[in-house]
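During the no-cost extension, the postdoctoral fellow (Dr. R.K.) reprocessed legacy sequence entries with the updated structure-token encoder. One reprocessed record is reproduced below for audit purposes.
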Amino acid sequence: MQIPVKIAFRIAVFLGSFLLFLIEPIAGKRLLPLLGGSSAVWTTCLVFFQLVLLLGYLCAHLFATKLGPPRQSLAYLLLLCAGLAQLGTIPGQNFRASTTHPIFSVFWLLSALIGIPFLALSAAGPLLQALYAYTTTTSEPVSPYHLYAISNFGSLLALLAYPTLIEPRFALRSQIVTWSLGFAVFTILCGVIHWRGRSLFRLTPNQETRMDRESPPGLTDRVLWVLLAACGSLLLCAVTNYMSQNVAAVPLLWIMPLSLYLLSFVMVFNGRRLWPRRPILCLLAVALGSVGYLLYQYSDNELRLAVIPIFCAVLFIACLFCHGEVYRLRPGARHSTSFYLSISAGGASGAFFVGVLAPVVFSANYELFWGLIFVSALAAAVSWKQGYAWFLFYGAGTLAMVALLVFQVRTYEHDTIARMRSFYGPLRVTETPVSTGTVRTLYNGTIEHGTQLYGTGLPLVPNAYYTDSSGVGLALNFCCSGGPRRVGVIGLGAGTLAAHGRKGDVFRFYEINPQVERIALNLFTYLSKSDASIQIVQGDARVSLAAESSQEFDVLAVDAFSGDAIPVHLLTTQAFALYRRHLKPAGILAMHVSNSYLDLAPVVQQQADYAGLQAVQVISQNTVRARWVLVSGNTDFLSQPELAAAREDIIGRKGLRLWNDDYNSLLPVVKWKGREERMITENSGERTAKP
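Re-encoded structure tokens follow.
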């Protein structure tokens, strides 16, 4: 075999994985303005990627087992050419999907955008490794499994490069064009491999060991492949969800655990025994004990950013164990495609459990605890040959994790009067006694979405971020000359803004989560006791507004940016043009930009400048620190002395560009310094939630 062919295999595996991982966020951003930013849409995207990845691995397995080596590479080239053809016929910018069946719309759109190319790239890794095994000679026994390490390294680089290098510098259209050129280069490279390797392909792949020649892998090994891969995937999703929902709502936090997950594959599949089994079992015991202590000893409101490295370290050690055991149980090259098919099935199962099944089955974020039980039980199952002491130790550890789950279920119910969960996240309503009555609070993960004080004779008054002295309070009080007001609100929460309603007013709320509406109507009284006429529109706000005729709002309040998943499609030039269409000429756009980790006020300032309007920042302090930016061309309102006394300058951000549907990036607006201090001062009310 000539050296250039070996290099071509390595480059192709790396490039294929890099492109595969890169297209996922690109496709997600492409869908955002079409279907909105609901969590269900993102979850459905992930399900689509997992299913097509599994289908790609199945395709590679069928190619490898049903076709000879030359025909394998030829069939794969035809699939790549079909992918190139699809890239030239993707739906146009004006395509609009049905919002009646969003899941089908997501699958249809993604299939039309990247279906065949994604399938081809999904099959690349296992199929190229199978072909690589055919090109080795008996005098040069080289395992193809190190290519899997190269594959995951390519995925890791794509993961790190997109939010830090690609997204901040290139518009979406440029990203799509560049990615398509990369796919064409990959196709050419695979054509070179086919041409150069056709004379080297052997009838049977080179077998690595005598055991490989004797028998195929048994049922136990195949089951363990699936279970171990599922455990790693489950822990990745569960740890990421737990940290973002119960520790800190940090945007882009998912990058850290996913990087460690991919790094574990790189380390264990590199062909060198860097991590012996016994030390990993010892480290896993320490990791499980540490995270178990944290979860038992501290409630979620006591956990801080400092524990994030601990959770990440636990995830990394657990993934080293799971993926190390998978690598230890790997078959010979003859059965590599079925091996990767099993790994893919396990990964899809773990992600499906956390992303789809858990929100339906569990009322709170319990999947992390089930993940800890799962990995401890697997450690007991695979370590018994190391000695019964290991089996007994991890068996006892499994029982301890079950006890921890029971303890947490009981703890989570303290002060809780309602708890529910869906694709949009976990919701929890607490009731706490105070000297004047009781306080009810609605939480979505760690984020407070409204409070109300209950007691005899207490008036219905807005509080927290929505007081009379807040930016939105000033907008509502001075937008009109005493007449009835028409107010739009993106984000319902507990319905606190309805307390500003007067007789004759109309308050129209846009809310994506139907469970929030039920909570606001049944557990809080802002909506039912408001003097205004209340209207609630279900669905993504931008999609709903785009489908409506002009609502002629006096004030439109956008309150959707306090969590970790920022709906950037509500901050683009296209979104602001939509807001202006629904506002009266003298109307006021009130943007709630209180966020512990992102400085969104400069983004709003740029949009106001682009639209020829003025932006005024108002920061108020009541029970929490509220930051609003008011955008308007209404000179009478802007000249109000109350507004002049409350306004504060907006400080620009270096490197920030105007956001639109073709370009937006969170990186330039991340608060890198003093995050903990800002978290305490700006969002002191957001740190008391439980899952």
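Residues 3-35 form the longest helix (33 residues). The domain at 1-209 is CATH 1.20.1250.20 (Growth Hormone; Chain: A;). The remaining legacy entries will be reprocessed before the final report is submitted.
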